[in-house]
Write a sequence for this structure.
């Protein structure tokens, strides 16, 4: 018996969330994909203390909560705003071009958006409570078991309905349940809701602003590294780096990149001021053990 993912809307939907699940890697590896520096996870107790002592989350660097499921998926739960960061693009492109990835993004202002890649190839997408993947096995299950209504060619998508406008919207709990069964997705409900999982800051400690265009195709460049923007640990890559099948580019994306000493003239760096707002709790010191004597432990004087 597993927890599945049907419950995530009830537990996480009120404030919005971004859920990323990647098959076959550790949560530490996923943290680095998302921008964290390697080995910087914060244990749950310390993270809770830090959040109590520090200013509100909006004044802190983006923080993700990560874990690994019993069946081999790494997962990250974070604010939906974190996915809009420019520094995410290059590492994120690498993850999507190589891995099996499930992404659920919900801002509360728009309907949830779901994207699924299998081994680097797009498999299924769901948005506006519908999908264009009408022949996909998952879609057929949603139609048969959850009452999903697909748009038809002879129906005006903008046509007003009589009565409740949401009457044709499939329940997201059903979408998550059936989708979880289809792809084998589960999350530890109690650990997630109690936030008893490692936390990672994913924003760069140093903002890297590219000052040049791709030397191969002239497009935008992005920093690409292992979670640290030290000059020896990142390079600039084309925005189309490893993006497959883009018109006008090689099949596996534009190879344009800048690294090494040339970076000095290609970027502008500035520290991220949000890291100054972090207040970490002091470590607790255990009480010393009573001294022992040859006759036995010291007697208490109280």
């Amino acid at each position: 018996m597993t927890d599945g993912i049907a419950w995530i809307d009830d537990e996480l939907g009120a404030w919005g969330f971004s859920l990323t699940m990647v098959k076959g890697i550790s949560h530490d590896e996923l943290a680095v994909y998302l921008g964290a520096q390697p080995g910087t996870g914060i244990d749950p107790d310390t993270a809770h203390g830090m959040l109590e002592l520090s200013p509100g989350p909006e004044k802190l660097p983006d923080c993700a909560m990560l874990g690994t499921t019993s069946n081999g998926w790494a997962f990250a739960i974070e604010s939906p705003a974190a996915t809009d960061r420019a520094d995410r693009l290059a590492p994120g492109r690498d993850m999507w071009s190589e891995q099996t990835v499930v992404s659920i993004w919900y801002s509360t202002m728009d309907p949830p958006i779901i994207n699924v890649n299998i081994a680097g190839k797009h498999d299924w997408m769901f948005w506006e409570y519908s999908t264009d993947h009408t022949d996909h096995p998952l879609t057929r299950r949603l139609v048969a078991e959850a009452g999903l209504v697909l748009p038809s060619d002879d129906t005006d998508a903008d046509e007003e309905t009589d009565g409740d406008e949401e009457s044709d919207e499939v329940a997201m709990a059903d979408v998550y349940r059936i989708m979880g069964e289809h792809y084998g997705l589960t999350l530890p409900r109690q650990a997630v809701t109690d936030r008893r999982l490692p936390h990672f800051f994913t924003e760069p400690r140093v903002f890297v602003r590219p000052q040049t265009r791709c030397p191969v195709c002239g497009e935008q460049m992005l920093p690409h590294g292992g979670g640290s923007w030290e000059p020896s640990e990142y390079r600039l890559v084309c925005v189309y780096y490893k993006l497959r099948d883009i018109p006008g580019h090689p099949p596996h994306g534009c190879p344009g990149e800048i690294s090494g000493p040339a970076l000095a003239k290609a970027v502008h760096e500035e520290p991220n001021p949000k890291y100054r707002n972090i207040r970490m709790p002091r470590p607790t010191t255990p009480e010393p053990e009573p001294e022992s004597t040859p006759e036995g432990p010291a007697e208490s004087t109280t």
Q: What stands out?
A: Residues 160-166, 297-302 have pLDDT under 50 and may be disordered. The radius of gyration is 24 Å. The longest strand covers residues 17-23.
